[in-house]
Automatic annotation (TrEMBL), chain A:
Bilayer topology annotation: Peripheral membrane protein
PROSITE patterns named in the record: ABC_TRANSPORTER_1 (PS00211), ABC_TRANSPORTER_2 (PS50893)
InterPro entries recorded: AAA+_ATPase, ABC_Ni/Peptide_Import, ABC_transporter-like_ATP-bd, ABC_transporter-like_CS, Oligopep_ABC_C, P-loop_NTPase
Gene Ontology biological process: peptide transport; transmembrane transport
Recorded family membership: Belongs to the ABC transporter superfamily.
GO cellular component, one term: plasma membrane
SMART domains per UniProt: AAA
Protein name: Dipeptide/oligopeptide/nickel ABC transporter ATP-binding protein
TrEMBL record, chain B:
Phylogenetic lineage: Bacteria, Pseudomonadati, Pseudomonadota, Alphaproteobacteria, Hyphomicrobiales
PANTHER family tied to this protein: INNER MEMBRANE ABC TRANSPORTER (PTHR30465), OLIGOPEPTIDE ABC TRANSPORTER, PERMEASE PROTEIN (PTHR30465:SF43)
Family affiliation: Belongs to the binding-protein-dependent transport system permease family.
Domain ABC transmembrane type-1: 100-316
Protein name, per record: ABC transporter permease
Transmembrane domains' residue ranges: 12-29, 102-123, 135-159, 193-212, 246-272, 292-319
InterPro entries per the UniProt record, alphabetical: BPD_transp_1_N, MetI-like, MetI-like_sf
Length: 349, 325
């Protein structure tokens, strides 16, 4: 499946946390690919390893987490392919990729910007770091970027502090900062979770528009399947540090192959549900204790299709069930899981 | 900024006025007055008549009621006259102008020493939390906090004189004590001072290390640090620019009370070290109820506290734009 269009290829990534209580396998064999200009949605419950996986890409996994295996191949602008896992996390090389070729925006616009530096200072810093421009030029680039993210009065905002502007505006500032060096890949870690619905729609709209303008790939992490349907072409579903299903949005929504994806899809409330006599289904139980990983398929403790034998004994591999659609379930082909309609309210740029 | 400074200046004047009243009353609170304690120090056998005592009281103006005494003191003070020390039989101004410069000569370098040592160590300890050096600094820091400075002074005096034959205590070695100012005397003073600074600054350094370390640990896990890291900044550069800048605010706010603490908080240590500073002078004045001297020193210290607080407020406004004037 790998071709010249692939810009990021994660293969069997393992990131573990050694704690006094034991080792947590936060990322336990994740594999995925991102192609040029494509948006990949990454979905999963809290604690499924999404955030750690993203931080592994940039090598900014907080202590005591560390990558213990696998590879993360990133194709740079000049065509060079580097394995991020092999780089020293403090090396000049990885720092020249961070913020320049791979940029990241975070969940909390309230705390993701320094409270004691102006918006402009923080954007200009990123520009000066990666581009050989003067401070004055960087400042005009920063103002231009703020304009591109539809920030009102960019010339004034550039000299303001984060506490002086609203949450939505802060997230716009974060996006402006991330895009200031025109990255090839933008990693967005739940960028709209902390925002209210109206602001969320504006930010998503903005990201779509900027994506086509900059022709960058986006890895979009969320636990909101509605957002996935609006924003992405490909979806990767994660459970306990592993990819359990991956495929196009359409495939995944209409014909899920993994019981976990099926559960997620059916736990979204829908209008008219009650009239049709359908109840909201939830996935039974909760995410297992990370220190006591279930044997076999990690999902068997919560799966209604658990056969009590193979599922408990043998860990399924991620395999292709249809071209471009893979799932990590022994019975992916035979369960015949019911999909849902893809939400129609896609945002038009 | 200017209206803020003006507003604060007026507040400071009011504060200082209130302090002057409190300082004066506090000095009067212990039973008896200077004449009592003066008589108590006279060698036994001397007979002092009631008339003589009354004459002394009248001479020192101790017969007037408290309000009158305060009024006399404060009007004189405003004209730059702090009264006379009963005990030393010299003007308070005279005594202070002798002691204050030396006090400042010790305390200002001590303050610099405290911050210059503790801030870098605090930063290192936080960034390399639980590293061997962090443990070493923490251990040394806790000992520094737990051992009273005067005890540390006594140990230092013992160790230097026992093992190095050196002389600790006082600001000058005996040969320079009465000599006129010369390069040799200055060098000698600096040598003696460095030991005094080390002793007086220990607990402040230890405390500031703990504050700096704790504050920075809180900030290091903040999301904006991760943002800076994802930007591609090098680790030390981002730590110095972002979390340290935020974590330093509470340390700056301590400068306000460090100033007076260094001047008055060292009475016992300064007495042990025989330093000619205001500390021992105040201690003596309070013990012998030398009221004008004691009240004046307390008054000067209070002004320093008020000024120190003002300085740290200004520093905080500069360091943290979220603080509105």
């Amino acid at each position: 499946m790998s071709d010249s269009n692939t810009i990021l290829k994660i293969d069997d990534l393992h990131t573990h946390y050694d704690t006094p209580q034991g080792t947590v396998r936060a990322v336990a064999g994740t594999s995925l690919e991102v192609h040029r200009g494509e948006t990949v949605g990454i979905v999963g419950e809290s604690g499924c390893g999404k955030s750690v996986m993203l931080r592994s890409i940039l090598r900014i996994v907080p202590h005591p987490g560390r990558i213990i295996g696998g590879s993360i191949e990133f194709t740079r602008r000049d065509g060079e392919t580097v394995d991020m896992v092999k780089l020293d996390p403090n090396s000049r090389k990885i720092r020249s990729i961070r913020g320049d070729e791979i940029a990241m925006i975070f969940q909390e616009p309230m705390s993701s910007l320094s409270p004691v530096h102006t918006i402009g200072d923080q954007i200009i810093e990123a520009i000066v770091l990666h581009k050989s421009v003067s401070n004055t030029e960087a400042r005009s680039i920063a103002i231009e970027m703020l304009g591109k993210v539809a920030m009102p009065r960019p010339e004034q905002i550039v000299d303001q502090y984060p506490h002086e502007i609203s949450g939505g505006m802060r997230q716009r500032a974060m996006i402006a900062m991330a895009l200031s060096c025109e990255p090839r890949l933008l990693i967005a870690d739940e960028p709209t979770t902390a925002l209210d619905v109206t602001t969320q729609a504006q930010i998503l709209d903005l990201m779509r528009r900027l994506q086509s303008e900059f022709n960058m790939a986006i890895m979009f992490v969320t636990h909101d399947l509605g957002v996935v349907a609006q924003m992405t072409e490909h979806v990767v579903v994660m459970y306990m540090g592993q990819v359990v299903e991956a495929g196009s949005v359409k495939e995944l929504f209409t014909a899920p192959r993994h019981p976990y994806t099926h559960g997620l899809l059916h736990s979204i409330p829908r209008l008219g549900q009650r009239k049709l006599g359908r109840r909201l289904v939830s996935i039974k139980g909760s995410v297992p204790d990370p220190f006591a990983r279930p044997s076999g398929c990690p999902f068997h403790t919560r799966c209604q299709y658990n056969d009590g034998d193979r599922c408990v004994r043998e860990e399924p591999a991620l395999r292709e069930v249809m071209p471009g659609h893979s799932a990590r379930c022994h019975y992916a082909e035979t369960l015949g899981l019911q999909g849902v309609d893809k939400p129609a309210e896609a945002i038009n740029a | 900024m200017l209206p803020y400074v003006a507003k604060r200046s007026v507040q400071m004047l009011v504060t200082v006025f209130v302090i002057s009243i409190i300082a004066f009353i506090v000095i009067q609170l212990p039973p008896g007055d200077f004449v009592n304690s003066y008589l108590a120090t006279l060698s036994g056998g001397q007979i002092v008549t009631q008339d003589a005592v009354a004459a002394l009281r009248a001479q020192f103006g101790l017969d007037d009621n408290l309000a009158v005494q305060y009024f006399k003191w404060i009007t004189n003070l405003l004209q730059g006259n702090m009264g006379i020390s009963f005990q030393y039989q010299r003007t308070v101004i005279d005594l202070l102008s002798e002691r204050l410069p030396l006090t400042l000569a010790i305390t200002i370098p001590t303050a610099f020493f405290v911050y210059a040592v503790s801030i870098p160590i605090g930063i290192y300890s936080a960034v390399r939390q639980y590293s061997p050096l962090d443990y070493v600094f923490s251990l040394v820091g806790f000992i520094g906090l737990a051992v009273p400075n005067f005890l540390f002074a006594i140990i230092m005096i013992y160790v230097t004189s026992r093992y190095f034959g050196g002389n600790v205590g006082g600001l000058f070695s005996p040969q320079y004590e009465l000599a006129p100012w010369s390069i040799g005397k200055v060098l000698d003073m600096m040598q003696n001072m460095s030991i005094a600074i080390l002793i007086i600054g220990t607990s402040g350094t230890a405390a500031t290390i703990r504050v700096m370390r704790g504050m920075l640990l809180d900030e290091l896990s903040q999301a904006y640090v991760e943002t800076a890291r994802a930007k591609g900044l090098s680790e030390w550069r981002l730590i110095m620019k972002y979390p340290v800048r935020v974590a330093i605010s509470p340390v700056l706010s301590t400068i306000g009370f460090t100033l007076p603490a260094l001047i008055s908080g060292t009475e016992i240590t300064a007495t042990v070290l025989n330093l000619p500073t205001t500390g021992p002078l105040l201690l003596n004045a309070v013990r012998s109820q030398d009221m004008f001297l004691a009240a004046s020193i307390i008054f000067v210290l209070s002004i320093l506290t008020v000024i120190g607080t003002f300085i740290s407020d200004l520093l905080l406004v500069w360091a943290d734009p979220r603080i509105k004037l």
